[in-house]
């Protein structure tokens, strides 16, 4: 007790000193008049002062969150205070607060007890001793809590989770938050991994994948500030509401300007499409409406998304491109007017010789420009002004007609013509060359289906990766469109071809790819194993990490969700809970006429707690609309969330379970947990729903529970 009191007093004194220091730095900065003139050097200095001012203003509210007493070999032990931003002392000398991303700060996260400690620094491995690791909670400049997680002098467990459990027990509002004060060693390894590697991370639900990815971006920007720019980094997320949900973490970490996009939106920008083709509503309905629609559609060759997302599809595109390239130059000489002739052989020499190293669209452009120059030279040889005029006119017409004989080399046009020629060739005697054979390997139903909608000018989400691949092969990539680093969240719903295409847009395979195969509910397009992604890279270009601890939910919820997985999906990817106990999971009947009343009763009971966010997860969109209307009528304010939702407002949300992926709520009520709604293949979907809950989980069930829902008597589940 005495120790804690003295620790508290010690930290309070230190905090007062730090705040005074920051305050006087701020005052000094503010006393310099803001420069508004045109001198460039002065403008740069002013921008530097402004960003320093902003940093200090953030620091003064919460200057640091941790302390580490470290004795570097051969030096004296000293306390290091670690914060979200580094603060130097008034004279720019010794740091008062160390940035959490600095090499020495990694000890704060990686040290888990023991006699010696070390960390990697630019100058090599630094070794020494850790005496104290302390968490310090400061809110609005006031010291709230001091918790020692390691003290060399005291007995007991080396590093305790007490502080982490305290943080996890808090209620959440409508945004994801930073975790700088409690990053775990396994997460820190990923955050600080080297830049030029494709990291592939399998993390169970709630293991912090999204959070870790965002912290990694902030780390990369700090560590490689001269080589990486925020605007050239991107995080791909599944939908706009999710982007809104994560939108505050990066600014909190002091890094803005990082692009956040869905794959569809980005593809539409690159391909200059008017609109991003989304998963069609009929696809979603087919896959997420309860019932038998999906039966018999689980083979890859029946699933267009799986077929078009496979790396094998890339070789089909390649061989089609080879065919297009070899047949690009029209099979006639070029005659700008009668009597003048440029032989096809000369044109082929240009196309296949001098310009060979350019992408094909550029080769075409160059050849046509050269032909034009040749025409101009020839025109100069005209015998009279009248002949010149006449020839010029003819040449213009014929150049235009000749250019038209070249194939159109835009991605969409190429893709369409590929399907058309495959369609036309089907049923004909076997292909004349290898290229034909490749194209003809497209399964018939996919060929017929795709050709039919392409003809109508429709594109689907499943076509985007192939279109981007074609685009990147025929055009030179605009450097404005390339990335320094790419994060793919919910990557289990990405296809290998999507990643292969992105690899063409990113420097040095600099990827962070995160997902959870147990949450692979977009089965019709996503990956089935991480090897599918790993195979895209050479072994030395990629690294695999697994996150198995789950931080979001209580032990009761995790045990329950794990059981669903064990029974419904054969998997060894089970979550290990942090020791945080809460309410038992509740199973309540809600069927027939009393269904809606039972659900709203459950909601009322849940709302008596201190929860700030509660979700009602229905099985389909239609049921969400229905339930929402019912609650509204009963005077309960709730937000209905649909597929095109752009913002997440918190409070009570009603949404279909498949849209809840990636989000979390203090309490979750899953409705209609019965065999009619959750068929044998829906265990993953129910798992996603259950793992959205932080503190409380209720399942409202009809008459017959699916086999994979555990018996309330087992586990710590209460039922009725
Ligand atoms: N080290 C940590 N300290 C405190 N909280 C953490 C830590 N790691 C994760 N969390 C919390 O756990 C929750 C889950 O994190 P996050 O959403 O990033 O996980 P995820 O793996 O992306 O989840 P899912 O796949 O289920 O969507 C968040 O509330 C996050 O703040």
Automatic annotation (TrEMBL):
It comes from the Bacteria. The keyword Acyltransferase does not apply. GO terms for molecular function: helicase activity. Gene3D superfamilies: P-loop containing nucleotide triphosphate hydrolases. Residues 182-554 form the UvrD-like helicase ATP-binding domain. ATP binds at residues 203-210. The keyword Oxidoreductase does not apply. Keywords: ATP-binding, Helicase, Hydrolase, Nucleotide-binding. Transmembrane segments: none annotated. PANTHER family: DNA HELICASE IV, UVRD / RECB / PCRA DNA HELICASE FAMILY MEMBER. This is DNA helicase.
């Amino acid at each position: 007790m005495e120790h804690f009191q003295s620790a508290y007093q010690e930290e309070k004194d230190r905090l007062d000193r730090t705040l005074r220091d920051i305050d006087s730095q701020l005052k000094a900065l503010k006393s310099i008049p803001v420069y508004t003139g045109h001198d460039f050097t002065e403008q740069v200095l002013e921008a530097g002062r402004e960003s320093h001012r902003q940093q200090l203003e953030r620091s003064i509210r919460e200057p640091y969150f941790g302390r580490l007493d470290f004795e570097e070999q051969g030096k004296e032990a000293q306390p290091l205070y670690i914060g979200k931003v580094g603060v130097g002392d008034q004279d720019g000398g010794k740091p008062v607060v160390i940035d959490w991303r600095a090499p020495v700060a990694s000890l704060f996260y990686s040290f888990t007890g023991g006699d010696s400690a070390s960390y990697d620094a630019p100058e090599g491995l630094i070794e020494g001793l850790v005496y104290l690791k302390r968490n310090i909670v400061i809110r609005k400049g006031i010291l709230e809590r001091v918790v020692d997680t390691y003290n060399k002098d005291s007995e007991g467990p080396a590093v305790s989770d007490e502080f982490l459990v305290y943080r996890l027990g808090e209620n959440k509002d409508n945004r994801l938050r930073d975790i700088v004060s409690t990053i775990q060693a396994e997460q820190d390894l990923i955050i600080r991994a080297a830049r030029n590697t494709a990291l592939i991370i399998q993390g169970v639900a709630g293991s912090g994948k999204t959070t870790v990815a965002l912290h990694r971006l902030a780390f990369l920007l700090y560590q490689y500030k001269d080589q990486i720019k925020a605007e050239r980094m991107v995080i791909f997320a599944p939908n706009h509401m999710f982007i809104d949900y994560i939108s505050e973490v990066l600014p909190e970490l002091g890094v803005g300007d990082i692009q956040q996009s869905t794959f569809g939106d980005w593809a539409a920008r690159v391909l200059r499409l008017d609109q991003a083709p989304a998963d069609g509503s009929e696809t979603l309905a087919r896959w997420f409406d309860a019932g038998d629609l999906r039966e018999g559609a689980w083979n890859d060759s029946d699933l267009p998304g799986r077929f078009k997302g496979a790396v094998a599809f890339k070789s089909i595109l390649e061989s089609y491109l080879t065919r297009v390239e070899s047949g690009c130059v029209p099979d006639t000489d070029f005659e700008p007017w009668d009597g003048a002739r440029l032989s096809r052989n000369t044109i082929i020499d240009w196309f296949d010789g001098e310009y060979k190293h350019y992408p094909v669209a550029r080769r075409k452009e160059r050849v046509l420009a050269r032909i034009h120059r040749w025409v101009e030279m020839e025109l100069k040889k005209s015998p009279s002004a009248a002949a010149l005029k006449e020839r010029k006119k003819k040449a213009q017409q014929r150049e235009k007609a000749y250019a038209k004989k070249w194939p159109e080399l835009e991605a969409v046009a190429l893709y369409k013509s590929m399907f058309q020629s495959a369609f036309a060739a089907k049923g004909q005697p076997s292909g004349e060359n290898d290229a034909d054979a490749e194209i003809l390997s497209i399964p018939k139903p996919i060929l017929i289906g795709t050709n039919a909608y392409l003809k109508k000018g429709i594109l689907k989400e499943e076509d985007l990766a192939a279109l981007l691949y074609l685009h990147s092969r025929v055009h030179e990539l605009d450097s404005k469109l390339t990335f320094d680093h790419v994060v793919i969240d919910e990557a289990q719903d990405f296809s290998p071809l999507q990643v292969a295409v992105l690899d063409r847009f990113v420097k040095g395979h600099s990827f962070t790819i995160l997902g959870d195969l147990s949450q692979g509910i977009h089965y019709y397009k996503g990956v089935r194993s991480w090897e599918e992604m790993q195979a895209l890279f050479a072994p030395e270009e990629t690294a695999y990490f697994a996150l198995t601890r789950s931080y979001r939910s209580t032990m009761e919820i995790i045990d329950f969700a794990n059981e669903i997985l064990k029974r419904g999906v054969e998997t060894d990817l089970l979550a290990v809970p942090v020791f945080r106990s809460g309410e038992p999971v509740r199973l309540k009947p809600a069927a027939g006429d009393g269904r809606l009343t039972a659900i709203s009763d459950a909601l009322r009971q849940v709302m008596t707690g201190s929860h700030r966010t509660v979700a009602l997860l229905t099985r389909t969109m239609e049921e969400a609309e229905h339930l929402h209307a019912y609650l509204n009528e009963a005077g309960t304010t709730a937000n209905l969330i649909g597929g095109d939702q752009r913002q997440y407002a918190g409070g009570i949300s009603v949404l279909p379970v498949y849209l809840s992926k990636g989000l979390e709520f203090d309490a979750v009520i899953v409705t209609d947990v019965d065999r009619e709604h959750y068929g044998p293949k829906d265990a993953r979907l129910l798992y996603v729903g259950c793992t959205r809950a932080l503190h409380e989980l209720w399942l409202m069930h009809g008459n017959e529970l699916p086999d994979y829902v555990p018996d309330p008597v087992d586990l710590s589940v209460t039922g009725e």
